[in-house]
Specification:
Layout: H1 3-14, E1 19-28, E2 32-42, E3 45-53, E4 62-67, E5 70-75, H2 83-87, E6 103-106, H3 132-135, E7 146-153, E8 156-165, H4 167-176, H5 180-195, E9 202-209, E10 214-221, E11 224-225, E12 238-239, E13 243-252, E14 266-268, H6 269-277
Parallel strand pairs: 6-14
Antiparallel strand pairs: 1-2, 1-13, 2-3, 3-4, 4-5, 5-6, 7-8, 8-9, 9-10, 10-13, 11-12
Helix pairs in contact: 4-5
Length: about 280
């Protein structure tokens, strides 16, 4: 099997993933170093995550859940200095209404979909708004993936592949496939590739296990930022900090339960914003 065939086979296997427990480590623009422990289902698409960034390490992880069309935030998320607090102008005094409750709810919310369809209320970095199941297939857009060697990842023997992915390569990969399922997979991969906000190209490493499935992948590249004027008008993109993320699949197709927090243990984000405006 050639490297390109191995990468394609792993992408096809991703379509059969129904649930996943995974870990993310690395760095992204604006947030710096981060670690993530998460679990998800693909149908319905829901997710539970504990996200720790360098700036919030002392306060502990931010707890994030996407269930149905709602986002739930707990842990260190319940503070005015967190991304959601800054985005919505929530002060510590406004968040006193949350005291005694474990979760803040916001809706409608969406995670793990296409670039336009995601709505995480500024809580998650753009680079981890996408489903890792889809992101693992991006290497199919490389025109010349290479076999690097072998490595044991989380106790699993794997074969290591690497390639450079360009926008042109992703589009060519999309246009070259036949069959509805394969084409939809490539369209999703291209959308997630753009969601990384890469300034140029992406260097991607993929570790594939003995069953031909992705076990781990690493994405590296320069990114761009979209600045805006004080009136909200977009300015020309500028080069941002690099992305360097490693995603490890820990358990595949094992039962995952993402529970909706109790209504009595949640506070509504919209109500907090309205109350502060008054």
């Amino acid at each position: 099997m050639t490297p390109a065939q191995a990468v394609t086979k792993a992408a096809e296997a991703s379509a059969r993933i129904t649930s996943l427990r995974y870990r993310i480590t690395g760095s992204v623009p604006d947030r710096g170093r981060l670690t993530v422990e998460a679990s998800m289902n693909t149908k319905p698409l829901d997710m539970s995550m504990e996200l720790t960034t360098a700036g919030q390490r002392a306060q502990g992880p931010m707890k994030v859940r996407f269930v149905g069309k709602a986002l739930y935030l707990g842990g260190s998320a319940l503070g005015g200095s967190t991304p959601v607090g800054k985005k919505w102008g929530l002060s510590e005094s406004a968040l006193t209404q949350v005291r005694g409750r474990s979760w803040l709810r916001a809706e409608p919310a969406a995670w793990g979909r296409g670039v336009v369809d995601n709505n995480t209320y500024g809580v998650l970095p753009h680079q981890i708004e996408g489903s890792p199941v889809v992101q693992s297939t991006i290497l199919t857009g490389s025109r010349n993936p290479k076999k690097i060697g072998t490595k044991t990842v989380d106790g699993t023997p794997t074969t290591h592949y690497r390639g450079t992915v360009t926008p042109e390569g992703m589009r060519a990969s999309r246009d070259a496939v036949t069959g509805k399922a394969a084409r939809e997979r490539q369209i999703d991969s291209l959308d997630h590739f753009y969601g990384l906000r890469l300034d140029k190209n992406l260097t991607m490493d993929l570790w594939i296990d003995g069953d031909g499935r992705a076990k781990q992948f690493r994405m590296r590249g320069a990114t761009y930022e979209m600045p805006y004027t004080a009136d909200g008008e977009p300015l020309a993109p500028v080069v941002g900090d690099p992305i360097d993320l490693t995603v490890t699949f820990l358990d595949i197709n094992e039962p995952v339960s993402v529970r909706t927090p109790l209504a009595g243990d949640t506070a509504d984000l919209a109500a907090l914003v309205d109350a502060q405006a008054d």
